Amino acid sequence: MNWAILVVAGLFEIGWAIGLKYTEGFTRLWPTVGTVLSMIISVGLLGLAMKALPVGTAYAVWVGVGAIGTALLGIILFKEPATAARLLSLALILAGIVGLKLSSS
């Protein structure tokens, strides 16, 4: 269950990272409200997951999920480049997340 909470925390991290773009420097009310709520939920869920998971593992997975999701949504939503090197780098982050999961007890 803690791993599921951690993944959901990572999804909310994606939400606030992408939300930052839509706030336009925190000048737009509703995108700002959504972004701040996503931040609070993300960190709160990360804290819950850390009750049972090692801090290094939990934080690395949280950041990794957020990084992969944010980069992919940047490609989809903002037409950022999807170069082979970029996609390979995201695959390596994913491999690291899987490795952390498999090596945890």
Task: Describe how the helices and strands are arranged.
Elements lengths: L1 H22 L5 H21 L5 H24 L5 H20 L2
Descriptive keywords:
105 residues; mainly alpha; 83% helix; 0% strand
What's the short version?
The protein is mostly helical. Helices cover 83% and strands 0% of the residues.
Q: How many helices in DSSP terms?
A: 4
| End-to-end CA span | 13 Å
Structural class: mainly alpha
Can you write the helix and strand succession as a string?
HHHH
Weakly predicted, low-confidence segments: none
Rg over CA atoms, rounded to whole Å, is 15 Å
Characterize the biggest β-sheet.
none
Write up this protein.
83% of the residues lie in helices and 0% in strands. The longest helix is centred in the middle third of the chain and has 24 residues. The radius of gyration is 15 Å and the shape is flat. The model has no long low-confidence stretch (mean pLDDT 97).
